[in-house]
Amino acid sequence: MQKVLAYILTPFFYIAFGLCLLIFHPVQWFCHRVFGYSAHGKSVALLNWCLMRSTHFLGTWYSFNNPHEIPTNRPLIIVLNHQSMYDIPPIIWHMRRHHPKFVSKIELGKGIPSVSYNLRHGGSVLIDRKDSKQALTEIAKLGRYIEKHSRSAVIFPEGTRSRTGHPKKFQPTGLKLLMKQAPSALIVPISINNSWKMLRYGKFPNGVGSHITFDVHEPIENTGDLDILVAKTEKTINSGIHSFA
Length: 245
What we know:
Blueprint: H1 2-35, H2 37-54, E1 61-65, E2 76-80, H3 88-94, E3 100-105, H4 115-121, E4 125-127, H5 132-149, E5 152-155, H6 173-181, E6 186-193, E7 211-216, E8 220-221, H7 226-239
Parallel strand pairs: 1-7, 2-5, 2-6, 3-4, 3-5
Antiparallel strand pairs: 6-7, 6-8
């Protein structure tokens, strides 16, 4: 019965989701070209709020649990497990005061209304996973950027999303590079649960009735041995993952 309902509701979701992307593309362009960085950032935050709201057609709801006071006057390295594309909008919306910038695969840099424009012009970096030299150069550039401007880098060290929610082993090279290039950054581990259920049937239909949670753990100072820091961050994130197939 749930899958039948998913077939009925998914088209309404895709229409709403697609309209958000199409409407906000010229809005982003106008804000970026006419008013600059701050206005562009606000348009991106509002876009992602709308994208979250579009998932309500599927009965999806969100909890973003952030009991910690996270400063806005220093850079952050936000580290998360990765379950689906639906991980992204809540991070952008709820962490908007910290100006999140993403380490994204290069394929997302073209062809997607709103999303591609923001990745190219909003301070994120696009990496070619087949070209390690290019990828590391871009990640290092992002680290220097957040260090200089006190903004935040978002990275999913698993590399690819988990289709079952079960955490994958960290690939630590990119995370370590960010730590080196942004030595004053706080490391903010976040555990995501249930986002994978949005794609439990594949790309169509979407899963229905998913309660997606984001648990923000206590920030970790970027001091000491990098291997120990990465291991501690991975352990902290995995301790908060409790929903998988």
